[in-house]
Design brief:
It is a single chain. The protein is mainly alpha-helical. The chain folds into two domains: about 1-95, no CATH class; about 120-205, no CATH class. It has seven helices and five strands; from the N terminus they run ααββββαβαααα. The strands form two sheets. The chain has a three-stranded antiparallel beta sheet with strand order 4-3-5. A two-stranded antiparallel sheet has the order 1-2. Strand 3 and strand 4 form a beta hairpin.
């Protein structure tokens, strides 16, 4: 049932794409270029006459909008049909030629390396750089930002977290051992560790055993 519904949506989308392509053909733009502002090439070569760029042409750009974040992005016209067919993981289409008439959504989460990070002092001691990114939309995107933009710093933060968790586990084990010894002053540390292990096994969920029914012949 879902496959048939998806096919209907995709068929309808193809019709929308064809309409968008027709409209976009007359709305191509040229993006600003350094060559437009500075058309003189090899100006530092004193042995050759300067080369001047008279005109710059391309296939033309058109704008598309992210259907959820409303970000406006220029794409080459000949790639527009491909861009308009891009889907998200949930099957929805990401880009549209229809201006949503809304400003892009701005997040409020900061990069972990932002100057206002609560751990900034510690990161300064570690020599981590500062990041200005302060408009990330959610915690998941913060993690993705760290993984893609600050790989070395993210690896160090993760390693520090892992070591801290190990230290916390050891501290908890020592506290548990101390609690057992306080109730049995004759027990050694090794005996306490063994006891803790045995108790953990005893307290582990036990699988229910099925009763065997033995039939006897009369």
């Amino acid at each position: 049932m879902e496959d048939s519904q998806t096919k209907v949506v995709d068929t309808e989308r193809e019709g929308v794409i064809e309409e968008m392509l027709r409209d976009a053909e007359n709305q191509k733009v040229e993006l600003p270029s350094d060559l437009t502002r500075n058309p003189v090439l090899n100006r530092d070569d004193k042995e050759a006459p300067p080369t001047i760029v008279n005109k710059i042409t391309s296939a033309g750009y058109v704008y598309v909008w992210d259907s959820r974040t409303y970000h406006k992005v220029p794409v080459l016209y000949y790639m527009l049909s491909q861009i308009l067919r891009v889907k998200r993981d949930d099957g929805s289409y990401r880009w549209t030629r229809n201006d949503p008439g809304k400003l892009p959504k701005r997040g409020t989460y900061k990069c972990l390396l932002h100057k206002d990070s609560p751990n900034r002092g510690h990161y300064d001691d570690l020599g981590f750089r500062t990041c200005l990114k302060d408009n990330i939309t959610n915690p998941y995107q913060v993690t993705q930002h760290m993984k893609s933009k600050h790989k070395a710093e993210w690896a160090a933060i993760e390693e520090e977290k892992r070591l801290a968790e190990r230290a916390e586990d050891r501290e908890l084990q020592r506290a548990l051992i101390g609690k057992v010894i306080s109730h049995d002053t004759t027990a050694s540390a090794d005996e306490v560790v063994t006891t803790i292990g045995e108790n953990a096994v005893k307290e582990a969920p036990k699988k229910r055993r099925k009763k065997r029914i033995v039939k006897t012949s009369k």
